[in-house]
């Protein structure tokens, strides 16, 4: 048996640990997150498809659907597959969720209503406090926060992070207006990206026109451009399925109040190519929305929804989008007479792919502070699981801070370790870290647990009567966390 005065283990204990580690490693290998990579499937223009693969690389993407407008000629290509129950190659007609790209549509509606209906963009939006104007909302200068405040939105965002679900569920037009009315303004006059602000704008424009926003969008932008595949509902068939960089499938985002900001809008690269081509020629309804009007920083200006960025080779006007499982980019270079659409079905950004296809330099995006925190957490969770079970496995004489081992303690530490591994699997940044870390940590956790369980028959239920209640409470906490994780998956 275990020698309390040394860290030596018997051959039987070591064999049990080895068997447990091997079985756990096999199980972990079978269920480990599988970060997406571009498959071999290719459709459309082969030369463009090759250029897309070169610009994007393979890591972090499952599929990319691309359209390139060059001197009025549109070429399209698809690489990778849709995912979902029956994956199929993507092409120019495959619907993707396009995230915030429709913020540019909303800006175009404002510009069109200003040109055709006499709406003054500098006038205050009816019903909003502090005389916030239409122009301030579309240029992200209203001072409204990025998202509504309050515990409800925070809880939805946290839950969506764990479940890869929809953080905008249940947010209708009245919720958006109420959130804007209760929000404090900060940095008014400075460009500060706001989903809430553009949602308020689109809903206000719809109210002024006497139409629901989807109908307003259809009449003002989609129908004039012949964009028949762009829709504000989830396509019934043929759509791409969204994934995180760790390989988990993500739910579509839906929230009727945030439709003008891009929540719940789907399109295809072929449809968006019509938009890019019309913006290049200035023939799109509300094309003046792309005119830069306000300065964000030394390289970026904003118009009505559209951003314009200076590069070493000129200027690119663009808007991007990102949801829980999709990324999108629409941009055009008027001087180069080129436009591009890039749609991806993972949450890895595609801006640099679009810029490269336009002929502009674009470095790989640097990890954000949030991404670095996620990477650190991914390292700590599996390491914590292994350490949690190895401490009791190697415990020798009891001390004041390390009491004698008992069965309740073993159950508690084992449950904690399993939950840590589960959380690592669920929310880990496995697109940036090798999944071998998860497999090794699972094997180490199983080995440590096995070493402890070899002593099970010799352990009391609870060595100290006063430890029963805290141990039982710990078990209940672990059960509650486990239930939450189960619901999240």
UniProtKB/TrEMBL annotation:
Q: Taxonomically, which superkingdom?
A: Bacteria
Spans through the membrane: 371-390, 410-430, 436-456, 468-488
Kindly state which keywords UniProt assigns to this record, in alphabetical order. Membrane, Signal, Transmembrane, Transmembrane helix
Q: Name one Pfam family in it.
A: Beta-lactamase
Fetch the PANTHER family from UniProt: BETA-LACTAMASE-RELATED DOMAIN-CONTAINING PROTEIN (PTHR46825:SF9), D-ALANYL-D-ALANINE-CARBOXYPEPTIDASE/ENDOPEPTIDASE AMPH (PTHR46825)
Q: Which residues form the Beta-lactamase-related domain?
A: 49-353
Which SUPFAM superfamilies does the record match to this protein? beta-lactamase/transpeptidase-like
Q: InterPro entries under this entry? A: AmpC-like (IPR050491), Beta-lactam-related (IPR001466), Beta-lactam/transpept-like (IPR012338)
- Gene source species: Streptosporangium canum
Secretion signal, residue range per the UniProt entry: 1-30
Can you name this protein?
Answer: CubicO group peptidase, beta-lactamase class C family
Q: Which Gene3D superfamilies does the record match to this protein?
A: DD-peptidase/beta-lactamase superfamily
Tell whether Nucleus is among the UniProt keywords.
no
